[in-house]
Design a protein that fits this description.
This protein has three domains: about 1-330, Up-down Bundle (ABC transporter transmembrane region fold), CATH 1.20.1560; about 350-425 and about 510-590, 3-Layer(aba) Sandwich (Rossmann fold), CATH 3.40.50.300; about 435-505, Rossmann fold (3-Layer(aba) Sandwich). It has helices at about 5-10, 15-25, 30-55, 55-65, 70-115, 120-125, 130-170, 170-180, 180-220, 220-225, 230-285, 290-330, 390-395, 420-425, 440-445, 455-465, 465-470, 490-505, 520-535, 570-575, 580-590, and strands spanning about 350-360, 365-375, 380-385, 405-410, 415, 425-430, 440, 480, 510, 540, 555-560, 560-565. The chain has about 600 residues and is of the alpha/beta class. The chain is elongated. The protein has a six-stranded mixed sheet with strand order 6-9-10-3-11-12, with helices on both faces. A hairpin with a 2-residue loop joins strand 4 (about 405-410) and strand 5 (about 415). It binds adenosine-5'-triphosphate and magnesium ion. Magnesium ion binds near residues 390, 391, 432 and 512. Magnesium ion binds next to helix 13.
Amino acid sequence: MAHGNHMKDGGKPKEAKKTFLRLISYMACDRRLLLVIGFLIIVSLVSSLAGSYMIRPIINDYIIPGDLQGLVRILLILGAVYITGVAAVYIQYRLLNEIGQRTVTRMRIELFGKMERLPITYFDTHQHGDLMSRYTNDIDRISDALTDSLSDMLSSALSLVGIFVLMLYISPVLTLVTLITVPVMFLFARMTVGKSRKYFRAQQESLGHINGYIEEMISGQKVIKVFGHEKQVISGFDVRNEDLKGKSLKAQFYSGLMMPVMQNLNTLNYVIITIAGALLAIFRGFDVGGLAAFLQYSRQFGRPINELASLYNNIQAAFAGAERIFAIMDEAPEMPDAPDAVALNDVKGDVTFSRVFFGYKPGKTILKDVSLHARRGCKIALVGATGAGKTTILNLLPRFFDIWEGEITIDGCPVRSVTRESLRKAMAIVLQDTHLFTGSVRENIRFGRPDATDAEVVEAAKLTAAHSFIKRLPRGYDTLLENDGANLSQGQRQLLNIARAAVADPPILLLDEATSNIDTRSEILIQQGLDKLMEGRTSLIIAHRLSTIRNADLILVLEDGRIVEQGNHRELLQLRGRYYSLNQEQFEAY
Ligand SMILES: Nc1ncnc2c1ncn2[C@@H]1O[C@H](COP(=O)(O)OP(=O)(O)OP(=O)(O)O)[C@@H](O)[C@H]1O
Ligand SMILES: [Mg+2]
């Protein structure tokens, strides 16, 4: 499991710093806005610090001497200072919100773009729900952190510095006293930080697992009901839910621990300073205004530390989310085209496999020494038992996977040395498992070639015998398909998939069990359609019912990843080998 690993190796502070910097780099596009925000933070900070400092002259120069007029004047100034601060904070939050949303939008775009560049293997090996969780939960955590926590952290950190300087200015001795408790605070913070970070990562991961599970169970509802697995499924969910609860509890506990402890330390600090300050005022003539201002600061000094601690919660969750998102972004994309890759133009459709070896996983060879030659416009059929490797052969031509050994060529050009885009444009595939998108029937057919006209869509549907059933749909070609065409029968879905290939009008056709879900009568219809469709195109077809491939130019019999027999229908029957017995079996079965 690729996503289980980084729990161990991501815990180092260096890793956290990298994640942080990378997160920041997403905001860098809004540099100017960030500068404005930085300026506003400073304005609000200065006004708050100045406001607190003004207590000193208010007490010393106006209250103690009893200067009422002066007092009113300085209070007005104080009011103005505070209002400026509040306004700065308000604007700052509005802007941050905007930046935060823009940043996560950029991340979502990049994440989705990346997904479209990942190899098929990635989706084979990752739970879809977990991937989806990264788009939703993880992105949300980041958005929360960027909009609220980040600026708060920044202003907290800055005010920490500012307050410290002012405290030092008012009374170095009292500042020293304050520093007694500060190291304890920092030590404690560091301790809890490590722990909560670990559990926040575990929490997000666990959330991903639970989402993966839910997604799987939703799509498998029918199977679950038929086999009466509801109870097991629920208890499976409970296990994951408990796991999530445990991890969340721990994450919350460690991050929640910080606040109260810090507050107590802060109160302790306050008491110590009050006593020390009072002694200084009595015995050393320290001014009362100064003491009042200092106490104000010392309380404020604790606040940013508190805030940093509580914000930590959000930041941790965001980091954990960011790590999971970056993990996808760092995933190796589909091998890029060779730098000297050429575009495949005017494809005639001469396909060869020579001595091809391939397996999905290292060490497990699936295709062994497969060679075939499909001349332009030929119809080649692949037959063989389940798991023999028929679909695998079709997967290799559009380079969903790359072969280990041997060579595949189109018109004499090795597929490795042409651009994937032009390669895939040269062929249309009807997959064994159909897929339809949310949208109208027309849009789904047009998916094969976006610039096809309405007339061409209808023509393709007529050719592949889909037209008659589409006409009977409530809104014909405008009928909306939802949820992978759940409102259609399996055979109808297959017909639409075939029509989609037809409208693409490519020189090479790959059909995987295209007629497997279709009744015998429709099959004859569609067979005629397919025959017309295949005319003049190189076609590689896989069929279970041998009757549909009788007229193929070449039939290849696969057994355990090897081609064991080849020839046309008549030749193979005469051979009285594998094909012959396959044929006999089917003949008897019907
Ligand atoms: N995505 C995959 N990852 C790993 N192994 C796979 C994958 N797809 C298929 N295989 C393995 O490759 C072998 C050949 O599978 P393939 O799908 O080519 O069979 P097939 O001849 O098309 O069978 P069927 O008639 O059932 O469609 C099988 O043993 C299967 O276990
Ligand atoms: Mg197959």
